[in-house]
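Much of the work behind modern protein science is quiet bookkeeping, done one molecule at a time. The fold becomes a row of whole numbers, each drawn from a learned catalogue of backbone shapes. The protein below has been through that process, and both of its lines are reproduced in full.
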Amino acid sequence: MPGEIHAYLDERKAIVHTEEDRRLVGNAAYEAPSEDILTDALLSLYLGKNVLLKGPTGSGKTKLAEHVSALYNLPMHSVNCSTDLDAEALLGFKTLIHDEQGRSQIIFVPGPITKAMTNGHLLYIDEINMAKPETLPLINGVLDHRRSITNPFTGEVLTAHANFRVVAAINEGYIGTVPLNEALKNRFVTIEVPYLQGDVLFQLLKSRSKLRDEKLLRTFVKLSADMLSLIEMGQLPDEAGSIRALLDACDLAAYIPPIRAITRAIADKLEDERERAAVLNIAETFV
């Protein structure tokens, strides 16, 4: 990583936040499959680029965003996209309040984008391709060189603080998702976030799960590798390879038989009977 970024991160560490902002700073708990992933994300944000994290469910995209938030000491505001996402969920809304004298007034309650832009924080847009195509163009100006938006509720032109940064995440090909249009994609630097494998995965399971049997932990790493092979061949859905699910299985396996743990944490989450059987067939060859 370039020395200037190291120096910048050191400067950021010295910033003292309010208690509320401090609670919004993420945890530095992401384990990268390769050092390039974290380095490129940090470099892109340092240069003022928007970063799009692209990868399957459970590969650690949100963890990576939180990790960046921690390293940059930037409070993180999150937008969870869905078909119901609208301008109010992004920017904020007007509401009626009453003061101590009983007088009524309408105030604007800022949303995650407004807060992040105003305060120079990190904005995390999760599952950005779940939003309706007509919703996201609202923030095109936020994501390009203008770094500004006209608030439709107040008429105010909001220009982002210099420290404002944007990270988004995408799961491609999932039910309910829509392809990002070219205008939106061109506003991001894209970083692939694959599943962890091998020794890196072993170290993560060892450090974060309740399972202490290293031989059994290695078995779970092999199980993950075989499931990823079936995912690549289209015989299992992406969620079968989720690191979260694998950690759940390891935690359970500290107390119950491994096959039962795998059934509860991984196999039974799958809707197709053949997929559930495939996971258990792999598991039975190892445990």
